[in-house]
Amino acid sequence: MNIKRIEIVNEFLTEQMNHWMLFPLLLTVMGVMKKLLGTGDPSLALWALCSLIPLAFFVFRCKVRNLLLFLLVHLGTAVLVFALSGQSVLTRVACMACVIGYIIHSLLLRLKHSTVYSEGMPLAVGVVLSAVTALFQYYQGTRGWENYYNITLIGVIALYFVIYFMDHYLDFLSMNKSSAGFLPAAEMFHSGMGLVLGYTLAGIGILVLSTQFEWLAGILRPIGDLLLKFLRFLFSRGSHSEEVAEIAPAEMPSGDMGGMGLPPGEEPFWLWEVLEFIAIVLFGAAALIGAGVLLWKLFKLVQKYMVFRYQSQEIQTGEAYDFREKCEIVKDKDKKISGLFTALSPRERIRKLYKKKLTAATARMDAGDKSGLGLYTAREWERKLEVNGMAELYERARYSDQEITGADVKRMKEIWK
User: Fold this and answer.
1) Whole-model pTM?
2) Could you give the count of Cα atoms lying within 13 Å of 52 in the half-sphere of its Cβ?
3) What pLDDT, in 10s, does the model give residues 199-246?
């Protein structure tokens, strides 16, 4: 996987995105000049040619090591742009402002940041800049330039999503390049880029259609008319009744009708009433089911949020579960004893002896052992207190299914003497 090539492509796309984000500013200046001086429309081709300037400066940052030569090639680029920008004063000023800005940016990257790669501007900046300048252009009085703003912003959004993926992909590789395991860099890039391009193209297509809907009006209007006719036929109550309903108002005399009324129309066919009733029932059922599904999803989402918040609070307060065996010295007042015979069984008697004697031994413990009374296992206490055989009896009584007899209880008492 050629990572260097991906970095170069990412840099080129980033420069193009930044360049076209600034295009609304040029449109604003051109709109004011058109209002005052009667100049023509802005030239997309000229701004596209200016987008090659940051690419040339990127090549200079990569190839030119000498600082003096680095400055000279930048100044030479500025002179070349001035010579090729044409005779129009406005065009020449716009091109020179563009090249001077890129010269300052390139010098800052080389001298201050010591890097050859530029960073992309946030998408929010481009959206706000485009919206503000388009609003100013509208109130300023220039009409017919809406597509300049729309197409430019849509292209910037598409570039942003592709650059966003490539930036995170390169960051991931740089963080894991020292990993000893195999990293499928090529497979990750191809699969991720395929998804990004697919979703980005689909979203851009929707944006273009939503802003340029009049392009499809000639195609969509016949389809809409045909669909409207089909719906009218489907939900009508009969062709004859429709004709009566349309003709009757025109034939009504303007004078007093007296006791005369409209002639009764033909009774509708019973199948239309059945279909109408079925459609109403299905629509109501679908609405109820949809509302129920949405409420259930909302309930599950709130429940999941509450569980996550509760777990986060446990982690922040330091509460954790110790899956090792604990002494359980603190008695639970709410604990229910299953029965008198169970409480007096040899198994329970051994456990009570263990807890009682261990609590009594705290008088000889230091502060550290007292604070960790419930954190050590029975075998750890056996080593600390130098009592042999205690842990084995306690573990058999608590964890095993082996039979515990009175002899075991007697042995536990002798151990603690």
Assistant:
1) 0.50
2) 8
3) 999 988 888 877 766 666 666 667 767 777 777 777 665 444 444 444
| 96 residue type, one letter | M
Q: Is 374 helix (H, G, I), strand (E, B) or coil?
A: coil
Nearest to 311 by CA among 302, 320, 323: 320
Count of residues in the chain: 417
32: closest CA among 112, 130, 133?
A: 133
Please tell me the distance from the alpha carbon of residue 40 to that of residue 281, in angstroms, as a whole number: 61
| Cβ contacts of 325-334, under 8 Å, gap ≥ 24 | 325/377, 325/378, 325/395, 325/398, 325/399, 326/374, 326/375, 327/354, 327/355, 327/358, 327/373, 327/374, 327/376, 327/378, 327/381, 328/355, 328/374, 329/355, 329/358, 329/359, 329/373, 329/374, 330/374
Q: In terms of Cα–Cα distance, which of 166, 161, 8, 63 is closest to 174?
A: 166
- DSSP characters for 60-116? HHHH---HHHHHHHHHHHHHHHHHHS-S-HHHHHHHHHHHHHHHHHHHHHHHTS--S
Q: What is the dihedral of CA 285, 289, 290, 295, to 10 degrees?
A: 140
